[in-house]
Amino acid sequence: MRYTSTMPALGYDLHSHSTASDGSLSPAALMAYAAQRDVHTLALTDHDTTAGLAEAALAARAHGLRLVPGVELSVTWQRQTVHIVGLHIDPGAPTLCSGLERLQAYRRWRGEEIARRLDKHGVPGALEGAQRLAGGPVVGRTHFARFLVEQGHAETVQAVFKRFLVQGKPGHVAGDWATLEEAVSWIRAAGGQAVVAHPARYRLTATRLRRLLGEFRELGGVGLEVVSGSHSEDDVRHMAVVAERAGLLGSRGSDFHGPENPYVEIGRLRALPASCRPIWADWTPPPYPFDSGQAAANVEGLQPV
Ligand code: AMP
Ligand code: MN
Ligand code: MN
Ligand code: MN
Fold first, then answer.
1. Comparing C-alpha atoms, which of 240, 238, 234, 262 is closest to residue 252?
2. For 43, how many CA atoms within 13 A lie in the half-sphere containing its CB?
C-alpha cells in the first residue's frame, strides 16, 4: 500500500520486529512484506536495538511505505519485565545509544547465564546455538527457544518457553533491565514518544496497572498499546478505558515477528476504539523525515549500536 496523507487508520502498525532482534524477516524483507499487505505506516521496534532502521528506511522508501523509527526497550518495574516502545526516535541520539549499549551488555550476560542453566539441565551448546540463530548482537529467549526446537527438546517455540524459559523453569533468569525512568528518558532524549507495549500481557492487578501507568505518565510517557496482536477483543475494550482514565494516547501494533506465526499478521488488527485518541493524531503528514532521500542517507550513515 503506497502512503498518502489521507490513508485510513487501519493502515497503522506501530510494533514489529526484524532479524535485528528476534524477528525472522530482514528489515528490508519486512518492509516489502508490509507494503504488500494492509499497512501504510509501520514502526520497526526491535528489542533493545535500532540496528535495523537504516536498512528499513531505504527499503520503506523503495516500497512507498512510511517507516516510523522505533525501538522496544526492556524494563524491570517492581521485579516485573515490562516493554516500552519508543516511536519516532532519533537512532543517533547519544543518550539512547548508551542506554541500548547497556541493555545489550546485560543481554549478553543473561544469554551466558541462560546457557549455563540449560547446560546443567542437560542441554549443552545453547549459547552458541542461540547466537548462530540470532546472527547479530541481540540474542533473546526466542533464539534459545528456536535452538531447543532444532535440537528436538520440544515441538514448538511456545512449548520451549513453557517448559524451559519462563519463571520457575530451568532456563529462566530474572530480568535486570532498564528502570522505567531510564527507558522513558532515553526515548524522550531521542525525541520520541514512549508507549507501554501490550499491557494486558503483564497480568497486573488493576491497582498495579494504575500505578505503572501513573508513574509512566509522570515521567513523560504518552501512549498505551490498546490494540496489540496479543490482545483479545476484551483486552482491547478494557485497555481503551484504562488509556482514557490514565490520560494516555492509544497505539496499535501487531508485534509481528514473522510469517511463521499464523496468529499475528502484520497490520491485521482490530481498529483503535473510538474513545481513544490515536497516538498518530498529531503526527505531521508528509513531508516526513524518511520521505526524503537525504534523510534516508543520513540514517544509513549512522553507526548502529
Ligand atoms: P527476551 O526479551 O529475550 O526475554 O524475549 C522476549 C521475547 O520472547 C518476546 O518479545 C517474544 O518474542 C518472545 N516470547 C515471550 N514469551 C513467549 C511465549 N510464551 N511464547 C513464545 N514467545 C514468547
Ligand atoms: Mn520478541
Ligand atoms: Mn514485547
Ligand atoms: Mn515486541
1. 240
2. 29
Q: What pTM was estimated for this model as a whole?
A: 0.93
Q: Distance between CA 272 and CA 279 in Å, rounded? A: 10
Mean pLDDT of 261-273: 93
Q: Write the CB contacts of 254 (distance below 8 Å, at least 6 apart in sequence).
A: 13, 15, 16, 228, 229, 264, 265, 266, 267, 268, 269
Question: What residues pair up with 12 in beta bridges, in sequence order?
Answer: 41
Q: Quick: pLDDT tens for 93-134.
A: 999 999 999 999 999 999 999 999 999 999 999 999 999 999
Residue 83 CA, ligand 3 centroid: distance in Å: 5
**Which amino acid is present at 259?**
P
**Contact indicator for 217, 243 with CB cutoff of 8 Å:** no
From atom 5 of ligand 1, which residue's Cα is the shortest distance away? 141
CA distance 39 to 98: 32
Dist. CA 39–CA 155, nearest whole Å = 32
Tell me the CA–centroid distance for residue 72 and ligand 3, in Å: 7
Task: For ligand 1, pick from 161, 163, 169 the residue to mutate: most ligand atoms within 8 Å of CB.
Answer: 161
231-255 burial by CB neighbour count: b if 16+ within 10 A, else e?
A: beeebbebbbebbbebebbbbbbbb
Distances (CA, A) of 200 to 74, 98, 271, 273: 16, 30, 17, 16
Kindly tell me the sign of the dihedral angle through the C-alpha atoms of 57, 63, 67, 73. negative
Query: Could you tell me if the CB of 141 is within 6 A of ligand 1?
Result: yes
